[in-house]
Design a protein that fits this description.
Oligomer: single chain
Strand content: 5-15%
Structural class: mainly alpha
Largest sheet: 2 strands, parallel
Number of strands: 4
Distance between the termini: 45 Å
Radius of gyration: 19 Å
Helix content: 40-55%
Mean pLDDT: 85
Shape: globular
Length: 196
């Protein structure tokens, strides 16, 4: 079963365009459902701030209450199932939406960099060599056209989606950990163009 991808529109992007909201989504994705108080502890924020931003995320369809947890006053929140797609091409006609797209994309990129940095600094000591040896950070560069890049990114997205399908919606083995997979493919800005 393929996990649905939500293509973010301008209204949703404006609802997401806040650093704490992106951090809340990341925390719910990486560590699972949580209350506003638990998120406040995880993120070093006040529970009032996390509660407010959770309600805003729910209003825009990013999170939902977890009906399997909580009692009365204790509200547990989880990510709405599925992935998110930011498409700058959808926002070109709306400058404010384009600015929100860039802001949210930068927040996600900063988050990824923090995860990689934490892994590099603490991975071996906290997880052991088996996890470090099974991980990889790949960097490659090649010259291609915009059309070739489009074909490559479509192929990589299809490949990753297919390979991750068996791991979704299953009972996790006891030794399973959250694994982040980041694949970046973009033209390098500031490097000479064709014929250089």
């Amino acid at each position: 079963m393929t996990t649905p991808q939500r293509r973010l529109d301008a209204a949703a992007l404006k609802g997401l365009a806040h650093p704490l909201r992106v951090d809340i989504l990341d925390s719910l994705t990486m560590a699972g459902p949580a209350t506003a108080s638990l998120l406040a502890d995880r993120l070093g924020e006040s529970s009032g701030a996390t509660s407010y931003h959770l309600r805003q995320l729910a209003r825009h369809g990013f999170v939902e209450e977890d009906p399997e947890r909580g009692t009365g006053r204790e509200r547990w929140w989880r990510m709405v199932p599925g992935g998110l797609t930011l498409a700058a091409t959808d926002m070109r006609e709306d400058r404010a939406a384009m600015d929100s797209t860039i802001l949210v994309a930068r927040q996600f990129a900063d988050q990824r960099a923090r995860h990689v940095d934490t892994f590099l600094r603490r991975g071996e000591a906290e997880l052991g060599p088996e996890w470090v040896d099974s991980s990889m950070l790949i960097s490659a560069s090649v010259r291609m056209t915009a059309q070739e890049l489009d074909q490559l990114t479509d192929a990589v997205e299809a490949f990753v989606s297919e390979r991750l399908t068996p791991f979704r919606d299953r009972e996790d083995p006891p030794e399973a950990r959250v694994v982040a997979l980041h694949v970046n493919a973009f033209p390098v800005v500031g490097v000479d163009g064709a014929g250089a």
